[in-house]
Write a structure and sequence with these properties.
With 460 residues, the chain is an alpha/beta fold. A 6-stranded mixed beta sheet has the order 2-3-1-4-5-6, with helices on both faces. The chain has a 6-stranded mixed beta sheet with strand order 8-9-7-10-11-12, sandwiched between helices. The chain is flat and about 85 Å long.
């Protein structure tokens, strides 16, 4: 059982609005136009250090059009795989046949679901509460996703309703292996552990599940998690490929590092960048391994790094290694760096060491002025891992120039050797400790001050 959460309902009941509120993002396009969401949207619902994959689906409608049938089928695929389902009903309208049909099929899935009445802020003569009560639903949430009404209560209820059992893997440092189909993931693992544990085939997509393979090196325990290749168009493709995607992303959530296997013959393609971006959202470190390097000449190898995608700022911070899964080339260096990155990604930094670095960087490049005030960076402290997070306390937390933020990020990344590790720097405005002790002027003093200012201006 996975902790995926699917949001389902008929068109225009507020699924995408709720998705954006729960994920605290704007990934899903919101409009009054019915049926705008066609494909599934993915995001993360975060409860402290716990994350759950949440899926916004298209509206399930009674329509004979092929498009509407495909959208509905995609929604039910997400519901079948989910550990928890949020069933949304328009609370400003009475129940209609589409709502009842969804409820009937939902009960046949035999899964836990939460009934949510959205748009409860609208004043109507709807008897939807009586209707759902007659259908046997005694507990439900009344919310207004658009105006954030009761959203925090819903989040708390979702947290308590999530399945307690997690994706189980053996003990040890966990390494998830991701990539497109036929990039050589299973071949790489078989060669690395020197066993034929995984099926290898020329046919792309042989692996369809996340498979855990424990092994030991130098007295330390490790676990490889081989995942299915994530194809282009996985959102609308076959049910098995969608399941594979969900399992792959849960494997990423459970792992300590991701080794992204790329076919060196093709180089980094758009689908590779999309997968890497999805991993970045989890905050896990990423190591890019260019596989099948034995099939390339030296000139072809050099060309890999000269492409626009390889030189983009997005992948410039990730370590790239050349390997051959079938011949075992580059394995020792790959494992040595992987082990080092796991330790660095989980390292906790002392406040004193971070403040020394911050003072050094500020001395080398003074902070700019923000809104006419000099930016003062007072102190910094460590706030967590995956991603490695630092909090800088300053006299400003907004309107700080992006180029100075990037300067600090690059400086810390270089000084702490955080290549391939996600780094997040948060700016927080410091409170004035003497604010409560400041003497406030009386009305009489304020008027006197205004007379003095006026007198001085007149003299000029």
């Amino acid at each position: 059982m996975f902790t995926s959460i699917a949001i389902i309902g008929r068109p225009n009941v507020g699924k995408s609005t709720l998705f954006n509120k729960l994920t605290k993002s704007r990934k899903a396009i919101v409009s009054d136009y019915s049926g705008l969401t066609k494909d599934r949207n993915y995001g993360y619902l975060v409860f402290g250090d716990q994350k759950s994959l949440i899926i916004d689906t298209g509206g399930i409608a009674q329509d004979n059009s092929i498009l509407k049938e495909d959208i509905a089928e995609q929604a039910w695929i997400a519901a079948e795989e989910a550990g928890l389902i949020i069933f949304i009903i328009d609370g400003s309208e009475n129940l209609i046949k589409e709502d009842l049909d969804i409820l009937t099929r939902l009960r046949k899935l035999d899964k836990k679901f939460i009934t949510v009445l959205n748009k409860s802020d609208k004043k109507t003569d709807s008897i939807v509460k009586e209707d759902i009560s007659k259908m046997g639903i005694k507990e439900f949430f009344e919310i207004s996703a658009e105006h954030s009404r009761n959203i925090s209560d819903l989040r708390s209820f979702i947290k308590e309703s999530l399945p307690k059992n997690k994706f189980e893997t053996p003990d040890g440092k966990k390494i998830a292996v991701l990539g497109r189909p036929n990039a050589g993931k299973s071949t790489f693992i078989n060669k690395f552990i020197n066993e034929d544990r995984l099926i290898v085939s020329e046919v792309a997509g042989t692996t369809i599940d996340a498979i855990s393979i424990p092994f030991s090196v130098g007295g330390s325990d490790f676990v490889f998690i081989d995942t299915a290749g994530i194809r282009k168009g996985y959102k609308t493709s076959h049910k098995i490929e969608y399941f594979s995607y969900v399992r792959a992303m849960h494997s990423v959530e459970e792992c300590d590092i991701v080794i992204f296997i790329c076919d060196a013959q093709e180089g980094l393609v758009d689908q590779d960048l999309k997968i890497i971006n999805m991993v970045c959202e989890t905050g896990k470190p990423i190591l890019i391994a260019l596989n099948k390097i034995d099939l390339l000449s030296k000139k072809q190898r050099d060309n890999i790094y000269e492409t626009k995608r390889a030189q983009s700022n997005f992948v410039s911070d990730f370590i790239k290694l050349e390997i051959s899964g079938i011949k075992g080339l580059g394995f020792k260096r790959l494992f040595r760096i992987t082990n080092t990155l796991i330790d660095r990604a989980q390292k906790k930094y002392s406040t004193s060491s971070l403040n020394k670095l911050l003072n050094k960087f500020v001395t080398q490049s003074a902070p700019p002025s923000v809104g006419g005030r000099q930016l003062k960076l007072k102190h910094i402290h460590f706030a967590g891992i995956n991603p490695t997070t630092f909090v800088i306390h300053s006299n400003q937390d907004k309107k700080i120039p992006q180029n100075y933020k990037k300067y600090l990020e690059n400086s810390f990344r270089s000084a702490l050797k955080l290549e391939s590790i996600q780094l997040k720097i948060i700016f927080r405005k410091s409170e004035n400790p003497f604010e409560s002790k400041i003497n406030k002027l009386t009305d009489r003093q304020v008027k006197k001050r205004q007379r003095l200012i006026k007198y001085i201006k007149n003299r000029k």
